[in-house]
Amino acid sequence: MTPDFLLPFFGWMAVVNIAILTAATIGIAVMRDFATGFHAGLFGMDDAQVKAAYFRWLANYKLLTLIFNVAPYFALRLM
């Protein structure tokens, strides 16, 4: 694989993952009470645990997106 192939690949992969992260963040922010109640009942957790799990999931997704999508894209741009 050449950098000419990898650069747009990592670029679009970063765009797609950032869009998913943004949609998930907005969805959780807008439907917080519904989603928290639904997942609390589904998994037998209380509301505080569900909110902590949401925050942890969003933080991990953001970190993985930065490490595996954005960083390689910028590394290839610098080459």
Which helices and strands, and how do they pair?
Blueprint: H1 3-30, H2 32-43, H3 47-78
Helix pairs in contact: 1-3, 2-3
Summarize the structure.
The protein has helices spanning 3-30, 32-43, 47-78.
* Number of helices in the DSSP assignment: 3
| Largest β-sheet summary | none
Distance between the termini: 15 Å
Tally of separate domains: 1
Q: Report mean pLDDT, rounded to a whole number.
A: 96
Strand residue content: under 5%
The secondary-structure class comes to mainly alpha
Number of strands: 0
Order of helix and strand elements from N to C terminus: HHH
Shape: elongated
| Helical proportion, percent range | over 70%
The rounded Rg comes to 17 Å
Low-confidence stretches: none
Outline the structure in words:
This protein starts with a helix and ends with a helix. The protein is 91% helix and 0% strand. It is an all-alpha fold and 79 residues long. The protein has one domain. The mean pLDDT is 96.
Key attributes of the depicted protein:
91% helix, mainly alpha, 79 residues
